[in-house]
Write a structure and sequence with these properties.
heterodimer; A: 492 residues; alpha+beta; seven-stranded antiparallel beta sheet; 43% helix; B: 155 residues; three-stranded antiparallel beta sheet; elongated
């Protein structure tokens, strides 16, 4: 068994000590350099606090050293073994055929220490049998390890390890995130914030006008709101651009004989390797503003791809293949992947008679809950007529949102299928098109109610092997007869 | 293709299980009535009454309706589970996609001699709820044999 390099220990110690020094300076400055510094005879509590703080820091350092000594790994012919844990010891054995995605990450401090973290996802979707492995090694060794793993993964990677140096290939670059596209992304994201800001400002002003009778106070609040609005208007594009610049720095997708390599990042350098065989679905995502500008993003549905390399947090996902492209290019891009996935136009849409069901149930549920609390609202000690105006205004606004949401869901819902793949169209403000190979469908489900059943309308749910949090896609309120064909699609 | 029904004793199992929730709701509402000031009583009673009605429906009426609609079926190729009262569902799970089959029994289920058959695929976990414990064992054995047979055929 091999330990992580000493540099990893120094890196962790550096982070701990640097953080500690920074916090101490901040604390001392707060206590003694303010206008009203703490008196020496009153400072016994501070001394106890600082003492306890330093004891905790020493314990943290001991923990880092122990964790380093008790963590080791071994790359075998058939599996990778990782041992960790000080009191509760854990041994993870991950076989090559179970590996789904290999990611490398290097933040700016790790770059100084010349170390990189390599995480391997097992593809398990439940916490119980989760076996994610994170190996930290020196930069040059990580490339070797990565190549070794790729060669051994199902024996599908035939290239020589020395030939494949990441980031050096130019010919096979499928996509680069251009500066023009980044600016477009910033513009679209800012537009969302501005729209929300304007709505907030308009409705806020109306409500303030109703409830505040003091003209001076109203003017000062409105002035403050306008100032805040313009500050947000200015800051949003700047911060979004900085975020895009850092996160998507040098974003490129390299296509190889049987896998993708996706690299990006300025402060944290990220590198994903995805075997074609592990791709369960391709998703085209079009946000509301993106649709107006005819742009889209393409995501890959692969278990483990883009998930945070931590055992405790699997909620953060970043599974983009193409973060932004013209909608017109989507079909061409998906075809150029040379996988079995094909972008298909919607064949079966939600019928007109289904439209009311997109709206009626949410309105009934909301109205029942909303009006059942009316007696409580009436007890608020304020002008009853104003309260009632606000109460009904809010009711109308929420219902308006439900109607808009329902219309969009109705327009977006649909399904297309053939012998090879099924395409599900769903979403409201964000329109999604999910392409799943039929062989990856694990379950098909029909959902209806008594009324919908009588009108031959039902929702169709397709389950497939993917991330535990989103392993199904629902095509809402289609013709019920479609299910007779859809239930023949999975491999039996 | 005739789908299988559950044992009728499942109705009393569901009622017993849900009575716990009903009692908690009832105690909560009684405490509210006792402690809420008199002038707020009506305001609290309306939503509470609504919740109580729903809980009564869920505890005493739903089990009968659920029993009437719940069906399951399995053969060489697939498992079918059908059910739901307000929202009706019809699930088809291909045998070849099943990763793991097992049974589950909680303390009340043990007392009633019932068990859930838990069918895990790579994309979802489904249950055939509350079948007789002997039937559940047979289903698991049969499904395991079918899965094994299919895998041998596949290879």
């Amino acid at each position: 068994m091999k330990k992580f390099p000493k540099k990893y220990l120094y890196y962790n110690l550096f982070l701990s000590i640097f953080g500690s020094i920074f916090f101490s300076i901040f604390l001392i400055a707060q206590l003694f350099l303010t206008e009203d510094p703490i008196q020496i005879d009153e400072s016994w509590m501070v001394i106890i606090f600082l003492g306890a703080y330093f004891v905790i820091q020493i314990l943290a350092i001991i923990l880092i050293i122990l964790r380093y000594h008790y963590t080791s790994y071994e790359i075998k012919e058939d599996l990778i073994k990782l041992k960790k844990g000080i009191i509760f010891k854990k041994e993870i054995n991950l076989k090559y055929e179970r590996m789904h995605a290999i990611d490398t990450k290097q933040n700016i401090i790790q770059k100084l220490f010349k170390i990189t973290a390599l995480s391997i996802d097992s593809g398990s979707t439940t916490k119980a049998d989760k076996a994610e492995i994170v190996i930290v090694e020196e930069d040059d060794k990580i490339i070797d390890i990565q190549a070794k793993i790729k060669v051994r993964m199902q024996g599908v990677y035939q290239e020589s390890a020395s030939e494949e140096v990441l980031g050096e290939e130019v010919d096979n670059v499928l996509y680069r995130y251009s500066n023009k596209d980044k600016l477009m992304f910033v513009l679209m994201s800012s537009l969302v914030s501005v729209t929300i800001g304007i709505l907030y400002f308009v409705f806020g002003s109306i409500f303030l006008n109703i409830f505040i009778s003091d003209l001076e106070l109203l003017q000062s609040i409105l002035f403050g709101s306008v100032a805040l609005f313009f500050a947000v208007l200015l800051l949003t594009p700047i911060t979004t651009y900085l975020f895009v610049l850092i996160r998507y720095y040098d974003y490129k997708v390299i296509i190889k004989s049987d896998h993708f390599i996706i690299t990006h990042g300025l402060i944290t350098k990220i590198n994903h390797i995805i075997n074609f065989k592990k791709i369960k679905g391709v998703k085209v995502e079009e946000g509301f503003i993106k649709r107006i500008f005819k742009y889209a993003a393409i995501k890959l549905e692969v278990v483990g791809f883009g998930q945070k390399a931590s055992e405790d947090n699997k909620t953060q996902t970043f599974n983009y293949l193409i973060p932004l492209c013209k909608k017109a290019d989507v079909e061409k891009i998906i075809e150029s992947l040379n996988l079995n996935f094909r972008y298909m136009q919607k064949e079966h849409k939600a019928p007109k008679r289904a439209f009311r069901y997109f709206i009626s149930l949410p309105i009934i549920i909301f109205s029942t809950i909303y009006f059942s609390v009316l007696p409580l609202i009436l007890k608020i000690p304020f002008d009853t007529s104003l309260i009632m105006i606000a109460y009904f205004c809010l009711y109308l606004i929420v219902n308006l949102l439900i109607i808009v949401d329902g219309i969009l869901k109705y327009q977006n819902s649909g399904i297309t299928y053939d012998e090879v793949q099924t395409v599900i169209y769903y979403g409201s403000f964000t329109r999604n098109t999910l392409i799943i190979l039929n062989k990856n469908i694990t379950e098909v489900e029909l959902i209806d109610t008594y009324c919908r059943g009588k009108r031959n309308i039902a929702s169709i749910n397709i389950h497939y092997f993917n991330n535990a949090y989103k392993n199904e896609a629902k095509a809402l309120l289609l013709e019920k007869e479609l299910f007779d064909n859809i239930k023949t699609l999975p491999k039996y | 293709m005739e789908l299988f029904k559950l044992n009728p004793k499942v109705i009393s199992y569901w009622i017993i299980k849900r009575i716990i929730l009903f009692l908690i709701t009832l105690i909560g509402i009684i405490l509210l009535i006792i402690f809420v000031p008199r002038n707020y009583l009506l305001a609290v009673l309306i939503p509470s009454g609504l919740i109580l009605l729903l809980t009564i429906f869920y505890t005493f009426i739903m089990p009968i309706l659920e029993y009437k609609v719940y069906r399951y079926y399995y053969d060489e190729e697939k498992i079918i589970i059908k059910g739901g009262v307000l929202f009706r569902f019809y699930r088809v799970i291909p045998i070849i996609q099943i990763q793991d089959v097992g049974t589950f029994q909680g303390p009340i289920k043990l007392a009633y001699g019932l068990a859930d058959v838990v069918v895990a695929t790579a994309g979802s976990v489904e249950r055939i709820n509350n079948v007789d414990v002997n039937i559940s064992k047979n289903i698991v054995d049969e499904l395991n044999m079918k899965i094994h047979k299919r895998l041998v055929e596949e290879n």
